[in-house]
Each structure stands twice: as structure tokens, then as C-alpha cells.
Write a structure and sequence with these properties.
- There is one protein chain.
- By secondary structure, this protein is mainly α.
- It has a single domain (26-164), classed as Aspartate Aminotransferase, domain 1, CATH 3.90.1150.10.
- Helices cover 40% and strands 6% of the residues.
- It has a 3-stranded antiparallel beta sheet, covered by helices on one side.
- Helix 1 crosses helix 3.
Length: 181
């Protein structure tokens, strides 16, 4: 605090790493990443990277049994599957992502990359166990079976969350930007 009562940051600390421009991102995230790098070390980062690539390739092989894989070569830590085979039933990538929430998994990124119809980007982390990866595959296979047998049900997912599927058209046309409705 300055003598006049205003606040200011003191950048003249010899033990500090110095000022980080907002251009470089959020300081808290940078600090967390730096601590992670220091904690893991070279060997730990190498092992984590290898595990992430292994997990992604394992999932890609398993999911390829039921889903279209638009890019078959060069999988590193992420890969893309396509839900285009379900589109004729009215089930889209975002419907599958909403359904996966009810299976206890965080929904994957959808509609990226833009050059893949009904893209679903799967990015397993390095810390996931084989059991978790298999449970994810089983959940997606059940969801795919449901898309074949009862596609209308996808209009109601997720069903187990406090807030179920919002009316996205209404949210765009009539945005409610208040904390309390």
C-alpha cells in the first residue's frame, strides 16, 4: 500500500521472478505449472507424457471398434472421433457429450477440429488408470447403443445434474446475465 492509501504492486524485489505481463497469461496458472514442472522433474515429465500418449492410443484403438476415427495416424496425447454415424438418427456430438456426463465423466470437447463432422476430441490425462479408461469406453459404447435404439432420449441429457439441458436458443436470444434470476 502506498502512503496515499492506494494499492500498487512492488516489482523491485530481488528474490522475485519479476513482473509477468498479462500477455503471458494468468500468474496463478503459470505458478502452478512451474511448480508442477519442478516437482515432476525431467524424468517425471517424460513419464507423464509417455503415459498420456499411451492412454490416448489405447482409447483410440478401443473406441475405433464403434466410432469413426477420421485421423488414423500420428496420435499423441489426444485424438478425434466422429459422431457422424448417429446424425441421421438426430443424435449429434453435443448430445453424446451431454450423455457422458450422466456416466460420471467430464464431457469431451465437441465440434473441434472444424474440418471433422460431429467431432469429439478425446484427451485422456496421464494419470488415468486402465480401469477408468475401460469404464469410459464402456460408457461410450452404451451411449452409442442407446443412440441406435432410443435417439429421442438424447434430447433430455444430462438427467442427473442439478441443471439439466438448458434451452440454448433461448439463452442466446434472451441472455440472463444476472447472478440471481
Amino acid at each position: 500500500m502506498r502512503e496515499d492509501g492506494t494499492y500498487a504492486l512492488d516489482y523491485h524485489k530481488p528474490e522475485s521472478i519479476g513482473y509477468i505481463s498479462p500477455f503471458y497469461g494468468n500468474f496463478g496458472i503459470l505458478l502452478r505449472a512451474y511448480a508442477y514442472i519442478l516437482f515432476m522433474g525431467r524424468d517425471g515429465l517424460l513419464s507423464a507424457s509417455e503415459n498420456a500418449v499411451l492412454n490416448a492410443n489405447y482409447l483410440k484403438e478401443r473406441l475405433g471398434e464403434r466410432f469413426s476415427i477420421p485421423f488414423s495416424e500420428g496420435t499423441l496425447h489426444e485424438f478425434v472421433i466422429s459422431a457422424k454415424d448417429f446424425a441421421d438418427k438426430g443424435v449429434k456430438a453435443h448430445d453424446l457429450a451431454k450423455a457422458i456426463i450422466d456416466s460420471g465423466f467430464h464431457p469431451p470437447t465437441v465440434y473441434f477440429p472444424l474440418n471433422v463432422k460431429e467431432a469429439i476430441m478425446v484427451e485422456p490425462t496421464e494419470s488415468e488408470s486402465k480401469e477408468t479408461l475401460d469404464a469410459f469406453v464402456d460408457a461410450l459404447f452404451k451411449i452409442a447403443d442407446l443412440a441406435d435404439s432410443d435417439p429421442d432420449r438424447f434430447h433430455y441429457f444430462p438427467e442427473t445434474t442439478p441443471v439439466c439441458r438448458p434451452d440454448e436458443v433461448k439463452a442466446v436470444k434472451e441472455p440472463n446475465l444476472r447472478y440471481k434470476a
